Structures are given as structure tokens and as C-alpha cells.
Amino acid sequence: MRSRREFGPDGRAAGLRLAIAGGLALLASACAQGGAWEHSLGGDHPLAGRIYQVSSERFVDQATLLADLAAADFVLLGERHDNRDHHRLQALLTRDLQALSARPRVVAFEMIPSDRQLAVVEHRQGQPGDAAGLGAAVGWPALGWPDWALYQPIAQAALERGAEIVAADLSRAQREAVFRDGPEVLQAGMVRRTGLDRNLPAPLAASLAQELRDAHCGRMSEPVVEGMFRVQRARDAMMADRLATVAGRSGGVLIAGNGHIRADRGVPWYLARIRPAARTVSVALLEVWEGLDLAAADLPFDYVWFTPRVDDDEPCARDEERLPQLDRPPRS
Questions:
Q1: DSSP characters for 178-201?
Q2: In sequence order, which residues have a C-beta less than 8 Å from that of residue 201 and are 6 or more positions away?
Q3: CATH number of the domain at 4-312, please?
Q4: Which of 101, 114, 167, 278 is deepest in the core (most CB within 10 A)?
Q5: CA-CA distance, 75 to 62, in Å (whole number)?
């Protein structure tokens, strides 16, 4: 079983352990006791605040998680976009990873389209270290995401170390073109090196198409599902390409919705084709839900850090009039 809210396309070493345990453990311990969570629903759930390593099917502490992330080339941090606790943990992990890295790791954002990269560069040159002003510089209010104040601490953690900020997503024009005409409209080199010119294995393609249908409450016509399928794959490929290209050999961090960091068919699938020798670790920040059964849950990630949830709303429990059949792509 799984929660559509968390899994939708956008989300809805011993010596080292001693050095890194302090600040991270302090916050996580407070969160586990319910005193530091921004959201209260599920704060008393037995999994809230716990970190689950999927491959070993065991819980680990924060120091173990951070030690593993520090050894990875690429770290992908997931989120539900409007969950404030997710952004606080992302900022904390980003800051600690920067402190542990020999060279600054680039930090890429799904939320910033690649055509805003020049605005990022100009802002950093003119006002280095100014995370607060970065949102305005990239035109954040018009992009449709939750308030920049939620993401600002993540950017601050990067800028404090002098790390590059990477605008990682397709532009709106590119999304529209891919929806209409497919990935052939994108730069041929990017399409080729990411493997975007290859089909996903049939089971993965089927699961992605079904996820898109579910995320839009079964209200998209099949031509729209096909277009959104092309866009989702192209977005994942673009994020992977931007992250790998700008990061070089220094490594990088991606901030993205949980659906994009899936290890089976998300950004890691494309990173493996760009940099086959690199190691990628995905950390999903997932809200707890009633009846959560780890043995039955779909957890296509390397780690899951469980948190309280924003609300108990069922996304599709609305009037029929408010959910018309979608014969064109929803705006995003």
C-alpha cells in the first residue's frame, strides 16, 4: 500500500559517525518526541522521526544515514512540496553534507527551470550568500511552488559553502513542446546521454502511467496521460543531466518531489546512464499514514525518513464538477 500524496509525480564509517552525530541527532531527537515538528498530524505515530534503510529492511540512526550520504556522489532528497518538516530536514542534511565534503557540492532544485540559470548566476555574482533574494531573482512567485521561505534555508546551506545552485527542471516552453512532440524537441546530446531515447522497461513504464492517472484522479484522457508520461520522463532526465553536468566530480544534491527520486525509474535511472560508475543515494521524506505496513509498502528508495503529515485530505474526494475530464495537460 502507499499514499498517493507522497508518491505522486511531484510529491504530493566509525570515526565519521562521531563527527557528524551532534546537530542532526539533536533535531531528530526533538522531532521524535514531537516537540520540534512543524506539523502535528501523525506526530505520535511510532514511525515518525525514524529512518528506514530499504535494502537491509532495518532502521538506522541519523549518523549512519549521513555517513552513507557523505560517501555518495549524488544525494537525492525527496519531499512533499508543502510539508515544512521536509524542508527543514533537507536543509539540515544539505548543510551537514557540505560540511563533510572536501569541495562544495552543487545543490540542484527541481523547482527552478533551467532557463532561470542565468538569473541564479547573476544573483550570486551580485549578492553572494543572499539566499533570501534568490527567490525573487528567479521569479519564484510566478513558478507556482509553496513560499520561497520554505526553500530558502536549503539554498542558504549551499551558499554558505560557496556551492553552485542549479536550475534543474525543463522550462515551461520545453514541457509544452515535449508534451506535444516528444523528447526529440530537446537537445540531442542530452537525450542520447541520459537514455531518454530508450524505452523504460515495460513494468516501469506501466507503473509510471498508472501513477499519473492516479495523481490526477483518473480524470485525464489517455492522450493527455501519454503526453504527461513524456514530460515526466523528460523532467527526470533533465534533472539528472543538469545535476551531473554542473557537479562534475565534486558531487551534488538534488531537491525534488519524492516521485522524481524513485530509484527504479526516476532521476537515478538517468544518472546511471550518464555516470555509470557514480553512486546515487535517494532519501524519501514520507508522511506517516494510518495502517502503514512496511512489509507491504511500495518504497522504491534507498532510505525513508518518516515525518508527520500536513493534512488528512483525500486529494480525489471532491465534487465531480471540480474534477472535469482533462483533455489538455494540467498547468504546473
A1: HHHH-GGGS-HHHHHHHTTTSPPP
A2: none
A3: 3.40.50.11550
A4: 167
A5: 15
Give the pLDDT of residue 298: 86
Q: Which residues contact 194 (CB under 8 A, 6 or more apart)?
A: 237, 240, 241, 270, 273, 274
pTM of the entire predicted model: 0.88
The residue written with cell numbers 527552478 in the block is 112
| Strand ranges inside the chain, DSSP E | 51-53, 58-60, 74-77, 106-113, 165-169, 252-255, 280-287, 303-307
Question: Which grid coordinates belong to 79?
Answer: 519531499
Q: What letter would DSSP give residue 252? A: E
Helix (H, G, I), strand (E, B) or coil at 68: helix
pLDDT of 326 strictly over 90? no
Over residues 262-318, the pLDDT tens digits come to 999 999 999 999 999 999 999 999 999 888 888 888 899 999 999 999 998 887 875
Cα radius of gyration (the chain): 19
